[in-house]
Specification:
The protein is of the alpha+beta class and 138 residues long. Helices cover 33% and strands 36% of the residues. The radius of gyration is 15 Å and the shape is globular.
Length: 138
């Protein structure tokens, strides 16, 4: 779900702002987009209502990141018994003009997969960012 739609209270709004700050600390050229998903019915069918989704766009195509944009999806599990949400993982995808170039997930093996791979130091930056997001939400 678009981060802008999830920002319904001070606590979650502050955490979303912190996620943007953490990402920009690792990727200073990126500009945050709190509404990466369109509001049409076809797109909304694909959106996870239990996630916080933020797009980050670079000024152009980046050889180091092998993308123009990175989509960050912070995924949660709603525990009905406890009436709370628990962070289960973070998925990031790099996109270029031809579509998805790579994917990095903390739910799987914490490795980039895809036809194009970001540079090793960029992957390391993603791992640092993800660890910091885990700390923020836990």
């Amino acid at each position: 779900m678009n981060a802008s739609e999830r920002a319904k209270g001070l606590d979650i709004t502050t955490k979303i702002a912190s996620v943007v700050t953490l990402f920009k600390a690792q990727f200073p050229d990126a500009k945050a987009d709190l509404k990466p998903w369109k509001n049409d019915p076809d797109t909304q069918e694909l959106v996870d209502p239990d996630s916080i989704d933020i797009g980050f766009h670079f000024p152009g195509w980046s050889r180091r990141y092998q993308s123009n944009s990175i989509l960050v999806q912070i995924r949660f599990y709603k525990d009905p018994a406890e009436q709370s949400e628990k962070l289960i993982g973070i998925e990031t995808c790099g996109f270029s003009h031809v579509g998805q170039a790579w994917k990095f997930s903390t739910i799987d093996s914490w490795e980039c997969v895809g036809q194009c791979q970001p540079a090793q130091d960029a992957e390391k930056q993603l791992k640092i960012f993800c660890r910091q997001v885990f700390e923020l939400f836990n």
